[in-house]
Design goal:
about 500 residues; two-stranded antiparallel sheet; about 10% strand; binds 6-phosphogluconic acid; EC 1.1.1.44; 6PGdom_BS
Length: about 500
């Protein structure tokens, strides 16, 4: 591979341009270059571009560009420009600058964590100018960006024809299949990335609860729990997040000699994608209870005044710690697996609902396929999700698919024991318990919603449907009259 930076104002030689060279942008640019593509690189301050070229210029062929004009001149037509800048106003500013100077047929790709409604708006505006706009969710963090992320590009199918092969090449591969596929029109790529992040939040919350149960329920140390997670990672729970949980728990703090996790402040931050997932789920009416609990658990951890004001509040009489540590550990593993299945079931329901709402035609099985590698939620059991949707593309919930139905059946007794033990010990487990309640609610034949309807009709004449009448037929009881029923 010929090396390093070509001077500016050459003829167009680059197949792809990357603007925004913070860690993710630099690593994606290097990934393209390592795959033999000539990559035009641009950053608002040239210092970052030069730092990238100084450190990694020998990894492939880069074209250094100081201005957007130089950057665009360096690109073969139709131009493909990947924007890797902060979501929100900075992304809009770069899009505007590029769109001014680009030509019909050129493609702008937003690889940041943009809000999907922004992507819908931008795609429309860019399309009206004769250009293509691709909102691409990219997952995998710094390491994934360099060595193979999972890529979720939305936007016009036509632009995928020219862009897809490049993205597929630099993405992670599982069993020879790229972790990248065209998701659907306009905001679909960023929508599914948003839900991916929501599931990521839920996964991490459940892992955190499992850790706390082993720590406070069994009195295990961080390195001991690291061993448990490492063991779990060899079975059904095999996943990136479980693998790195073992790594983080095993880390010793150089300063104190304690486990690092014991010296990290217990207040979780968030950039917002989990919150967006829940907001969107509320609008779509999809119960993503696991994701919501995870977002609220982060908010609770950061509710410092409330936490300070409640130190020492009564716990009531607590139960005794489990006596069979091995059994309890296995119960926690099963509860984690079952709760995780619920989180994915909910996330996929949100994707189905979003796809229907916006007419995106997203194929859930394709998503499961491209999440098997590269992304943060990559896990062995995504193969099972892929199989489930391939067997039944209209699957109403993963919980009804034969494999998951049996997996939860095998876990259910453990799951209930964990929830009741945690409650008896006063250990908060919002993720485990809400997932179990969701599961129980789904399988309950008669929900108390009938009473809710009765109450709504009583105070607001909101009407109800009857179990013995045609669906859609509405009835009202004359509550303040003779209490007879009328058809509404
Ligand atoms: C990924 C990650 C990545 C990042 C999120 C989460 O898929 O590579 O999801 O996008 O880790 O921004 O960040 P917060 O936890 O701060 O919301």
């Amino acid at each position: 591979m010929s090396s390093s930076s070509t001077p500016s104002n050459t003829t167009a030689t680059a197949q792809i341009g990357v603007t925004g060279l913070a860690v993710m942008g630099s690593n994606i640019a290097r990934n393209f270059a390592r795959h033999g593509y000539t990559v035009a690189v641009h950053n608002r301050s040239i210092a970052k571009t030069d730092a990238l070229l100084a450190e990694h210029g020998s990894e492939g062929t880069f074209v250094r560009s100081e201005t957007i004009a130089e950057f665009l001149d360096a690109l073969e037509k139709p131009r493909r420009v990947l924007i890797m800048v902060k979501a929100g106003a900075p992304t809009d500013a770069v899009i505007d600058e590029l769109a001014e100077a680009m030509e019909p047929g050129d493609i702008i790709i937003d690889g940041g964590n943009s809000l999907y409604t922004d992507t819908i708006r931008r795609e429309k505006a860019i399309r009206e100018r004769g250009l293509h706009f691709v909102g691409a969710g990219i997952s995998g963090g710094e390491e994934g960006a360099l060595n193979g992320p999972s890529i979720m590009p939305g936007g016009p199918a036509e632009s995928y024809k020219s862009l897809g092969p490049l993205l597929e090449e630099i993405s992670a591969h599982v069993d020879g299949v790229p972790c990248c596929t065209h998701i659907g029109p306009d905001g679909s790529g960023h929508f599914v990335k948003m839900v991916h992040n929501g599931i990521e939040y839920s996964d991490m919350q459940l892992i955190g609860e499992a850790y706390q149960l082993l720590r406070d329920g069994l009195g295990k140390s961080a390195p001991e729990i690291a061993d448990v997670f490492a063991e779990w990672n060899t079975g059904d729970l095999d996943s990136y997040l479980v693998e790195i949980t073992a790594e983080v728990l095993r880390q010793t703090d150089a300063k104190t000699g304690k486990p690092l996790v014991d010296v990290i402040v217990d207040e979780a931050e968030q950039k917002g994608t989990g919150r967006w997932t829940v907001k969107s789920a509320l609008d779509l009416g999809v119960p993503v209870t696991g994701i919501a609990e995870a977002v609220f658990a982060r908010a609770l951890s950061g509710s410092v005044p409330q936490r300070k004001a409640t130190v020492g509040l009564a716990s009531g009489e607590l139960g005794t710690a489990p006596t069979d540590a091995a059994q309890f550990t296995e119960d926690v593993r099963q509860a984690l697996y079952a709760s995780k299945i619920v989180a994915y079931a909910q996330g996929f329901n949100q994707i189905q609902a979003g796809s229907a709402e916006y007419d995106w035609n997203v194929t859930p099985g394709d998503l499961a396929t491209i999440w098997r590698g590269g992304c943060i939620i990559r896990a062995k059991f995504l193969n099972r999700i892929k199989d489930a949707f391939e067997a039944d593309p209209g699957l109403p919930t993963l919980l009804a698919a034969p494999y998951f139905r049996s997996a939860v059946e095998a876990a259910i007794d453990s799951w209930r024991r964990v929830v009741s033990t945690a409650t008896a010990l006063g250990i908060p487990i919002p993720g485990f318990s809400s997932a179990l309640s969701y599961y129980d609610a789904l399988r309950t034949e008669r929900l108390p919603a009938a009473l809710t309807q009765g109450l709504r009709d009583y105070f607001g004449a909101h009407t109800y449907e009857r179990t013995d009448a045609e669906p859609g037929q509405k009835f009202h009881t004359l509550w303040s009259g003779d209490r007879s029923e009328v058809q509404a």
